[in-house]
Specification:
- Pfam families: TctC.
- Residues 1-31 form the signal peptide.
- Keywords: Signal.
- With 331 residues, this protein is of the alpha/beta class.
- It folds into 2 domains: 33-131 and 257-324, D-Maltodextrin-Binding Protein, domain 2; 133-248, D-Maltodextrin-Binding Protein, domain 2, CATH 3.40.190.10.
- It has 13 helices and 11 strands.
- A 6-stranded mixed β-sheet has the order 2-1-3-10-4-11, with helices on both faces. The protein has a 5-stranded mixed β-sheet with strand order 7-6-8-5-9, sandwiched between helices.
- Helix 1 (2-19) packs across helix 2 and helix 3 (49-65) packs across helix 11 (269-284).
């Protein structure tokens, strides 16, 4: 009798949600999530690409589950301070984290003790998007493609350098993977951010730069720098003419950063499944797809299992790479 009553109530909730034009899962959200507003911790300063994606996703998810979601920027430590705060939150789904490859792979693999374990202390919910890095050259460099660049560097060993936004950043590791796979001798020049590095590339102070594609896009379009290849395993809609590193001459090469939603360890499976399904629906929305592509991001939207597998594989891949260069000490 009780089972029958609960089934009828669930059906009534679904019907009410449908009559209001709301997704049926919103009715279940009220039954599984704690009352009150939710918080999405963005572990970087406001205004950056991660913050833009976080606020967009928070708004759309809020509309779908009929809950207020407050975005809280907690910067510092390359994302580790905000991630640590989210990891210590109550595991009921009321606090979520906008995680990245920095918070869940690079920081934990860097020199020094991490304030959290990227696998044990979090509940994966959904991978939202992948963002490629890009190999850029100054207009003074004669090479017009990746193969020509590799040949040029090999002909002048020790005379080329590449810039990045800093030690331990995804662009830095993209450069180190390039060095290893291409077998070239180039020096890393770390900058305090992508902006200063780009200025020096445009000015010819450095010949090469690995940068996040979203940050480099306007400079590529203006012609102030040249893009030779980007680092995902498939081309991106914003630059369909730009080959992947694998297509351009380094088969098997792939690096990226990503945005994903995590909860603290121990979030109930029912809550995880509901949030994951809603986030997949959010990423599928046409305006969200358009915004992500504007940021040169590749929309994904995944199950918790796909995100968990990505973190595991990236820790293994980047761990081997970081070990090969003698470890990382974050600036």
């Amino acid at each position: 009798m009780t089972s029958s009553t609960l089934t009828r109530r669930d059906l009534m909730k679904r019907g009410a949600a449908a009559s209001l034009g709301l997704p049926a899962v919103a009715a279940f959200a009220q039954a599984t999530l704690p009352k009150g507003p939710m918080t999405l911790v963005v572990p970087f300063a406001a205004g950056g690409a991660t913050d833009v994606v976080g606020r967009l996703v928070a708004q759309k998810l809020s509309e779908r589950i009929a809950r207020t979601i407050v975005v809280e920027n907690v910067g510092g430590g390359g994302g580790s301070i905000g991630a640590a705060k989210a990891a210590k939150a109550t595991a009921d789904g009321s606090v979520l984290l906008m995680g990245t490859i920095a918070t869940h792979v690079i920081n934990p693999l860097s020199v020094g003790s991490s304030p959290y374990d990227p696998q044990r202390d979090f509940t994966p919910i959904s991978l939202l998007a992948k963002v490629p890095n890009v190999l850029l050259v100054s207009n003074a460099v004669k090479a017009q493609n990746l193969r020509d660049l590799i040949a040029l560097i090999r002909s002048q060993p020790g005379k080329f350098a590449y810039g990045s936004s800093g030690v331990g950043t995804p662009p830095h590791l993209s450069g180190e993977l390039f060095k290893a796979m291409a077998g070239v001798d180039i020096v890393h020049v770390p900058y305090k951010g992508g902006g200063p590095a780009m200025s020096d590339l445009i000015g010819g102070q450095i010949p090469l730069l690995f940068d996040v594609l979203s940050g480099a896009a306007s400079h590529i379009r203006s012609g102030s720098v040249r893009a030779l290849a980007m680092t995902l395993d498939q081309r991106v809609p914003s630059f369909p003419e730009l080959p992947t590193m694998a297509e351009a001459g380094l088969p098997g090469y792939e690096t990226y950063t990503w945005n994903a939603i995590f909860g603290p360890a121990g979030v109930p499976r029912g809550v995880v499944d509901m949030l994951s399904k809603e986030l997949v629906a959010v990423i599928a929305l046409p305006d969200v797809q358009a915004k992500l592509k504007e940021l040169s991001a590749t929309p994904v939207g995944s199950t918790p299992e796909v995100l968990a597998a990505l973190v595991k594989s990236d820790l293994a891949k980047m761990g081997s790479l970081i070990k090969s260069i003698g470890g990382l000490k974050r600036e």
